[in-house]
Design goal:
Elements lengths: L9 H15 L4 H10 L11 E3 L3 E7 L2 E14 L5 H4 L3 H19 L8 H16 L4 E13 L3
Antiparallel strand pairs: 1-3, 2-3, 3-4
Length: 153
């Protein structure tokens, strides 16, 4: 196929563009791009992989009314060699298990003035991730934010 108003083929134009970009790139960038292109998708990575989870915001019920709201923003550090592609099929199952575990924890501690004990929750969520994903999949649970807010009357 010829490009409009040109005598070069689409393939030749792409090759020319690749040569121009390679010449303009910093030294070594071409090798890095080539190595990345050769690496098959889903291949184990060298460093840790971090997975950002959607915030979990839950009402705290005392008696028969919602008295406050608790929320967590979590990230997972996967074990070396694990990738986001390995994690994705079980993302929703893990989120559901986390919500169940957090509700169980809140139910056990709802009488306290502050419900969320971050270190205790991290340990429980690590056990939950080991149960759902398998031992050695998640290296660490990272609590980026934990909050409790009283409900307005």
């Amino acid at each position: 196929m010829l490009l409009r108003g040109s005598s070069i083929s689409e393939r030749a134009a792409r090759l020319l563009l690749a040569v121009v970009l390679a010449a303009a790139a910093p030294a070594g960038a071409g090798r890095a791009l080539a190595a990345e292109a050769v690496k098959p998708k889903g291949e184990a990575v060298d460093g840790p992989t971090f997975i950002q989870l959607r915030p979990i915001i839950l009402p705290i019920v005392e008696g028969n009314r919602v008295t406050r709201t608790a929320g967590l923003v979590l990230a997972l550090e996967l074990e070396k060699g694990k990738t986001a592609l390995d994690f994705e099929p079980k993302r929703d199952k893990l989120r559901d298990a986390f919500i169940t575990e957090i509700y169980t924890y809140i139910d056990q501690h709802s009488e306290a003035t502050r419900v969320l004990d971050v270190s205790a929750l991290k340990a429980r969520l690590q056990q939950t991730s080991d149960r759902v994903l398998g031992q050695g999949f998640v290296h660490a649970i990272l609590v980026e934010q934990a909050f409790e807010r009283p409900r307005a009357p």
